[in-house]
Amino acid sequence: MRKIQLHRRAKTALQRIPLNRAEQIAVALGEVAELDSVASHPNVLPLSGSQRGWFRLRVGGYRAIFQPREDGTLSVLFVDWIGPRGQAYR
């Protein structure tokens, strides 16, 4: 199981979106953190181009951009951005 680490902008975004959707995003991130391979989750796709190693999680009209990281013995799911679908890939 990975520990979930949120960037400051991801924490702020979770506080601003509707509570029920924020809870759904938190549950989905927990599901992804428990998997051995994050790409095996049905709502996760890798980002292409220069963002190798980064993934997106789809939860309704929202996206979470994250990267699994290994820090020695600690596995971390680093969530960089959460927001509406239209702003996710800029």
| CATH C-level category | Alpha Beta
- CATH homologous superfamily (4th level) name: RelE-like
CATH architecture: 2-Layer Sandwich
Q: Catalogue the unreliable spans.
A: none
Main sheet characteristics = 5 strands, mixed
Kindly give the count of domains.
Answer: 1
Describe the structure.
The protein has 90 residues and is an alpha+beta fold. The protein has a single domain, classed as YaeB-like fold (2-Layer Sandwich), CATH 3.30.2310.20. It is built from two helices and five strands, in the order E-H-H-E-E-E-E. Strands 1-5-4-3-2 form a five-stranded mixed beta sheet. Strand 3 and strand 4 form a beta hairpin. The longest helix is centred in the first third of the chain and has 16 residues. It is globular.
